[in-house]
Amino acid sequence: MTHRSKEAGLTTIQFALATALSLLAFVVLANFIVFLYARGVVRAAVDEAARVGGRHGASVEQCENRAADVLQDLVQGLQTDVQVVCTLDDGIVRSEASVTLRGWVPPATPDWSFTLTAQSVRERVT
Questions:
Q1: What's the pLDDT at 12?
Q2: Mean pLDDT throughout 50-63?
Q3: Residue 109 lies in domain
Q4: Any idea what the Cα angle at residue 38 is, between residues 36 and 39, rounded to 5°?
């Protein structure tokens, strides 16, 4: 093997490693963007659920069903674990979502867990 062929072999290995790291960086960035999208969807679902639950005569089940509808439409296909609970206490409707988003490449992209809450004052009929 000549000196020139050794250099060519090292260059090929360096190129392959650089390409792999670039692709991994791209996947990590794309995963982060998807996480931000999913967080926005969960925020919208929690807000929408609180609005529906705040209507006069609305039940806690209607609140939770509205959140489930929004989530089903917008986060379908993502690896998520979302639990939404609505409560009614002293004229205030609260919807709370506990969320875990699964990373695409577990060692490089960890799971992200968070909780979002929204509340609405219940409508009163006078």
A1: 85
A2: 93
A3: 3-121
A4: 65
